[in-house]
């Protein structure tokens, strides 16, 4: 089963330590959401435990983990986050994550491209 979210909100936040890209159906953190977070600096311990990878969270901290994403594709106001076996397991999803953007955010693609630049080389991000 694919996890699908109709996003009415998209936020990109850089707090100096990490870059967070979050999507929600209502208000951030109060309902259905998908959050991607990437640390801006990683040390050897982070790399040893896999904390240098993108952290993904869906709906609660119980469905979250580092790594697990094999590719992201943005096309026609939809973002598909393709998961590998590890991601499917910790997110408890059999297939992928699909985010359908119902809102009109003229900066949406710009936010996605900024996040893509921060994770360069971890997994492919395609814009179609």
What's the quick description here?
With 128 residues, the protein is an alpha+beta fold. It is built from 3 helices and 10 strands.
Top keywords for this entry?
10 strands, 128 residues, alpha+beta, five-stranded mixed sheet, five-stranded antiparallel sheet, 19% helix
Give a description of the structure.
With about 130 residues, this protein is α+β, with helices and mostly antiparallel strands. It has one domain. Helices cover about 20% and strands about 40% of the residues. The chain has helices spanning about 45-50, 85-90, 110-120; strands at about 5, 10-15, 20-25, 35-40, 55-60, 65, 70-75, 80-85, 95-100, 125. The strands form two sheets. It has a five-stranded mixed β-sheet. Strands 2-3-4-5-6 form a five-stranded antiparallel β-sheet, with helices on one face. A hairpin with a 2-residue loop joins strand 7 and strand 8 (about 80-85). The longest helix has 11 residues, at about 110-120. It is globular, with a radius of gyration of 14 Å. It starts with a strand and ends with a strand. The model has no long low-confidence stretch (mean pLDDT about 90).
């Amino acid at each position: 089963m694919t996890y699908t979210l109709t996003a009415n909100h998209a936020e990109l936040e850089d707090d100096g330590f990490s870059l967070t890209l979050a999507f929600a159906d209502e208000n951030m953190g109060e309902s259905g959401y998908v959050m991607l977070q990437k640390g801006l600096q990683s040390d050897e311990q982070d790399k040893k435990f896999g904390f240098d990878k993108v952290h993904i969270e869906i709906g609660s901290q119980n469905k979250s983990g580092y790594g697990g994403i094999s590719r992201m594709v943005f096309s026609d106001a939809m973002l598909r986050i393709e998961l590998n076996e590890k991601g499917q397991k910790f997110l408890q999803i059999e297939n992928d994550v699909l985010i359908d953007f119902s809102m009109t955010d003229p900066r949406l693609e710009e936010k996605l491209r900024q996040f893509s630049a921060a994770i360069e080389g971890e997994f492919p991000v395609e814009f179609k």
